[in-house]
């Protein structure tokens, strides 16, 4: 049984977490703190999202930083590139470094730090994932137990990263945060989009990216299976032939949580196609590295389109179950006013909108610019530096 499994058991996990908290407290009295930054992997093991992009920035700029993962195979793999800056969570070295570090950084939930327990005597920063149009957390109607847990977690953080005041305003209701805890800095993952050129090596490994590329990223659904390419008149072979005739490839990326909870309808059938490809985590671990190679983005309610706005490229939206989504989880922002692209509800509409884009017709350029500027205060690719400046100037770090 893995160490994670023991901590997930209700009774045993409670005693293990209590013991770890006591051990950390005792060690904290004996071990001198240093100016290091301890970054937790999203979900405890992924080298992805804002956590990895901030880590890479700090590492490249020779800042004293560490990245922890709770799977041995990930530790071994990442250590080949980043050496001693990578920590295996269930190790003595990781425990000592956690106690020493004055700053803790994570992206999803405090479980990212597992098995360590977050305490308020350190500078704690939540980088979050991305801007969301869907209601989250408290605003989405959490159970009382989960709401209490979330509020307790938010009490321990010093800063929660946002990309604009408009996003910050929505975070108050979602996480019960006071305004002084919101750090409007922009996100490290979007620095990559603003600073990096397309990765030729990625194209070499994935030749489907050499053609005009459409990326379809549906969001995760808590109460049902995601229906990929969700049109009543949908014909996979017909769409594949249309794409072939237009020398275009369509990449379909399931939400990463689909792997753990449910099977997306239609995903396995993509293997039969010549111009429609799977683009999940096993094919492209980090979606941000894929986006510069994407010419057109298609989604339903995924927040990825807010990031894609920074590239100023066309988007198509397929809100096939809008009636259900309006009820639960609901929307933080008006969907129609904040989605700058055509809304398609059948294959015929989808093909018409794609044909328009292929012909150079871009009806939503001004809308994209307006919404981009509302949700991204900074567009200079320096968000990681702003976060570092915040850390280094904070009294808890000095």
From TrEMBL:
Pfam families the UniProt entry points to: Glyphos_transf
Topological type in the membrane: Peripheral membrane protein
Cellular localization per UniProt: Cell membrane
Gene Ontology cellular-component annotations: plasma membrane
GO biological process, any: teichoic acid biosynthetic process
Keywords: Cell membrane, Membrane, Teichoic acid biosynthesis, Transferase
GO molecular function, one term: CDP-glycerol glycerophosphotransferase activity
Assigned protein family: Belongs to the CDP-glycerol glycerophosphotransferase family.
UniProt name for this protein: CDP-glycerol:poly(Glycerophosphate) glycerophosphotransferase
């Amino acid at each position: 049984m893995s160490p994670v499994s023991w901590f997930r058991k209700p009774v045993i996990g409670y005693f293990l977490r209590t013991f770890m908290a006591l051990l950390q407290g005792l060690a904290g009295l004996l071990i001198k703190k240093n100016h290091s930054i301890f970054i937790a992997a999203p979900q405890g093991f992924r080298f992805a999202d804002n956590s990895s992009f901030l880590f890479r920035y700090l590492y490249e700029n020779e800042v004293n930083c560490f990245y922890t993962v709770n799977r041995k195979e990930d530790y071994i793999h990442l250590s080949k590139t980043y050496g001693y800056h990578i920590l295996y969570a269930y190790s003595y070295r990781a425990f000592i470094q956690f106690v020493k570090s004055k700053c803790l950084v994570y992206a999803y939930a405090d479980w990212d730090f597992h098995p360590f327990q977050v305490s308020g005597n350190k500078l704690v920063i939540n980088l979050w994932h991305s801007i969301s149009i869907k209601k989250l957390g408290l605003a989405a109607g959490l159970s009382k137990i989960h709401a209490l847990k979330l509020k307790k977690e938010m009490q321990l953080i010093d800063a929660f990263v946002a990309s604009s005041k408009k996003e910050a305003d929505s975070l108050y209701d979602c996480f019960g945060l006071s305004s002084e805890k919101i750090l409007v800095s922009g996100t490290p993952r979007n620095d990559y989009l603003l600073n990096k050129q397309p990765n030729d090596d990625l194209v070499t490994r994935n030749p489907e990216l050499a053609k005009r590329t459409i990326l379809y990223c549906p969001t995760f659904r808590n109460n049902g299976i995601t229906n990929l390419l969700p049109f009543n008149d949908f014909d996979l072979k017909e769409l594949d032939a249309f794409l072939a005739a237009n020398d275009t490839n369509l990449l379909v990326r399931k939400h990463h949580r689909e792997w753990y909870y449910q099977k997306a309808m239609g995903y396995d059938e993509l293997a039969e196609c010549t111009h429609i490809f799977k683009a999940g985590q096993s094919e492209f671990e980090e979606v941000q590295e894929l986006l510069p190679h994407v010419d057109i983005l298609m989604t339903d309610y995924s927040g990825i389109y807010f990031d894609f706005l920074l590239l100023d490229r066309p988007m198509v939206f397929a809100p096939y179950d809008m009636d259900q989504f309006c009820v639960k989880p609901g929307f933080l922002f008006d969907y129609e006013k904040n989605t700058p692209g055509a809304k398609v509800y059948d294959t015929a509409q989808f093909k018409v909108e794609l044909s328009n884009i292929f012909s150079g017709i871009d009806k939503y350029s001004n809308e994209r610019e307006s919404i981009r500027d509302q949700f991204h205060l900074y567009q200079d690719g320096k968000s990681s530096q702003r976060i570092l400046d915040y850390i280094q100037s904070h009294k808890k770090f000095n």
